[in-house]
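Entry 14. Two folds queued back to back today. First construct below, sequence then structure tokens.
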Amino acid sequence: MAKKTAALPEGYLARGIPGDYAGDYALPSEVHEKFAQLVAAGAQRASAIRQAHPKGDQLATPIQSARNVYEKEHVKRRIRWLREQKARTFASEEGIFEGFIAATERTMEAIAELVELCRLEGLAREATAARGALGSLAGRTFTHRDNMTKADEQGRFESPKAKASLKEILG
């Protein structure tokens, strides 16, 4: 028998979420909020629902559960707003890529920690794979960072020139 749900008041996306919700405040559902934060930060949806749901490890269908949460309009709006906020932090007064560079450096530090953890746990193959990923990421990032910083200093990321400049730099 299908579970009955109370009808929402007209103009509401969900309980406590008006139709004009822009995503600019936390969702009332802790599961939805944590899911939105994780997805906005780059987590895969199935992984995000496992982490967000109190019984995430026991979900029989995490992919379907994640899809059900993601398809809710208020969750999509929250994810979009969180991503926009993250993008705004990248565009600092110091330069458009300073936030990107800092985030990339944090990622590389996390991979380095993963390499060390694998090594300590006797996972040599996994440590080698993580070390290779770190080396590849570092090489590409620093090569492109220098090129993008020069382009930013020249004002090439302003207006319509930006896309052409990015294509030229990233080739």
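Second construct, same run, same settings:
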Amino acid sequence: MDGSHRPFGQNALIKWVEKMAFGEDLTDKTTGALGSDAAPRADNWFVAQLKPNGLALALRNLGRQRFATFVPERFEALRGATVRRPLFPGYMFVRFDPVQHGWQAINSTRGVTRLLLNDPRRPSPLPAQFMAGLIARCDDKGLVLPPEDFAAGDRIRVISGPFADLVTKVDALDKEDRLRVLIELMGQKVKTSIPRVNVEKLA
């Protein structure tokens, strides 16, 4: 994702998003404009590459065209002050139905360089489960929420990754950003660790 126009696979794109968002490959999940939807849906999201300093321009012009957009942000320290910064500088999420005509206009929208598509003839959106996990990590203004505090014995549900929807308990705290859990595979209980951002605590 260095701005070149070489082909790439969707799995590579997802891993890039996860790495950018959470600092690691989650192989196991702006003020962000969400179009007219109060609660953003998780289906039909794509990644658009922005022109330098093109975020505000892209948001304004995509909004005029009635495309829903999602720009997660996080707080960063800058010269002694805390400011909001895009989680993925130079990129944004855009939602459209690839079956309907008109989405091609995104590529010529001011502020946008291009959509990152595997096959422009048959655009394949990011998996809804993946986007649901990312959206769940943000508040209604697109700010990434801090991870919950967990303790051994807490009941949790995995919300993204290969173990999505698994309900289990925290066995132990692993590294700062991971939880050790027991899962059942082929009739045997196996210990594994899962990033905190991939789970939610259950009451």
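Quick look at the second one. Residues 1-8, 21-38 have pLDDT under 50 and may be disordered. The radius of gyration is 18 Å.
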